[in-house]
């Protein structure tokens, strides 16, 4: 007898966040290494954010409130610093939108464990 295996993608499609439906879902934008010039305007209003350590001073000079964390979730903008922290940003989005159980399944499929601090606006 063959066991039926659920893939993380299939589980994610079926998962529902309690009290939330697709029609009322808000959109969040994720950005890795937000030290790019096109993102500065969005951050100039004092949005909490992070970026690669080499660009943090520039980002702060442009008006962003730079947080020393691996991933920063400011509600509708989620930022991370460095290339590999983009994986952590993606896993945080999975955790935030469909739950930790699904995120753990995705981690297992990727053979990667989320690391570092996720800062969240209260």
Automatic annotation (TrEMBL):
It holds the Pfam family DJ-1_PfpI. Residues 1-31 are annotated as: Disordered. Residues 43-94 form the DJ-1/PfpI domain. GO terms for biological process: regulation of DNA-templated transcription. InterPro entries: Class_I_gatase-like, DJ-1/PfpI, INH-QAR. SUPFAM superfamilies: Class I glutamine amidotransferase-like. Residues 1-12 have a biased composition (Low complexity). This is AraC family transcriptional regulator. PANTHER family: ARAC-FAMILY TRANSCRIPTIONAL REGULATOR, DJ-1_PFPI DOMAIN-CONTAINING PROTEIN.
């Amino acid at each position: 007898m063959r066991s039926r295996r659920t893939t993380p993608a299939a589980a994610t499609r079926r998962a529902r966040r309690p009290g939330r439906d697709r029609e009322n879902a808000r959109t969040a934008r994720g950005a890795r290494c937000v030290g790019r010039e096109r993102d500065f305007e969005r951050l100039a209003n004092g949005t909490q954010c992070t970026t690669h350590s080499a660009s943090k001073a520039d980002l702060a000079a442009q008006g962003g409130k730079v947080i020393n964390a691996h991933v920063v979730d400011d509600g509708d903008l989620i930022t991370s610093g460095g290339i590999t922290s983009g994986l952590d940003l993606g896993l945080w989005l999975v955790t935030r939108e469909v739950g930790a159980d699904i995120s753990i399944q995705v981690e297992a499929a990727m053979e990667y464990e989320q690391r570092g601090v996720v800062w969240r606006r209260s």
